[in-house]
Amino acid sequence: MSVVRIDHVSKDFQLGEQTVHALHDITLAVEPGVFLAISGPSGSGKTTLLNLIGCIDKPTSGKIYINEQDVSSRTANELADLRSRSIGFIFQTFNLLPVLSAAENVEYPLLRRSDVSPEDRKRRVDYFLDIVGLSKYANNRPNQLSGGQRQRVAIARALAVKPAIVLADEPTANLDKATGREILKLMKQINRHLKTTFIFSTHDQKVIDHADRLVQMEDGTITAFGVRNGKTWNLAHVRNLPEGDDEEASQ
């Protein structure tokens, strides 16, 4: 069973009188527990694809399945409920609430969950702050934390809902190289320990080097799928280039 399945999805945006074709006929299945990087240059469609998987946006055509449930036609409230239970988000700008402490930021997405008691919320906050190594900073506000610490809070917040999927949009973009490597190592450890599926959009080679699955994109299409074999990639190229262009996509 796939944790995410995308079936012939396209996404268009209207900019004034111009229609922008952001994604073209994307088909993709993501297995549970993988560490997947969606790579490509700016404008390739990787963030648009991530937003569709995260049920932040809806496809123009095609269908998206989360845990084999079709989410393409669900209402905004139904999608919000799905996100609060099944999907965690990590952003490059951290998106922490500045007036809340680290613990309160981690707890925040749980407040809309009537099925999570105050006692369980506290247990989850304590547990995931400990996993990311920030227990002693629980009462610190974001402006009292370093960039790496703020990203660790964002990771704990994403995990607190106990999601099937964690989506990370350029999670290392605002971190220095050493901190970025540290954060990636932490997320890989969590992936292996909790078996949580991680899906990244990135053009950072460090992220790709940590992944065990790879999707390469260009101009709104998938150009290659990859599975890691030790330190190398087994890539299957997709021929979807314009007619007359015989050049294969390359890593």
Structure, described:
It is a single chain. The chain is an alpha/beta fold and 251 residues long. It has a single domain (4-237), classed as 3-Layer(aba) Sandwich (Rossmann fold), CATH 3.40.50. The chain has seven helices and eleven strands. A seven-stranded mixed sheet has the order 6-7-8-3-9-10-11, sandwiched between helices. A four-stranded antiparallel sheet has the order 2-1-4-5, covered by helices on one side. Strand 7, helix 6 and strand 8 form a beta-alpha-beta unit. The radius of gyration is 18 Å and the shape is globular.
Kindly summarize this structure in a few lines.
By secondary structure, the protein is of the alpha/beta class. It has helices at residues 46-53, 76-86, 102-107, 118-131, 147-160, 177-194, 205-210; strands at residues 4-15, 18-30, 35-39, 61-66, 69-70, 87-91, 165-169, 197-202, 213-218, 221-229, 232-237.
